[in-house]
Design a protein that fits this description.
mainly alpha, 5 helices
Length: 101
Amino acid sequence: MEGFPERGKAADLGQLQSTMHSIELACTSIQMHMNSAAAEATILSLSQTSQPYQACKFILENSQVANARFQAAAAIQNAAIREWGFLSSDNKRSMIRLCHS
């Protein structure tokens, strides 16, 4: 998972879909009380990933699982607080636009 894509560079759709599916499955597993430890580890890995913005934006825009969208928003918040001091100006602007959309 990486920050926002640079201008002219497309994200790897397959990787984004795979990440979204993993987070959706983890959220569903927690709600169903199935393999909670592994599911929590998956969600925690999203939150602790360096610059998870691109994957989180994809989840927010495409997931039908409300808890997955919530976890993606929380991961953006955690990463922004942690990384704001060294994000590029373009990434900061992209993040602000995402928050306002």
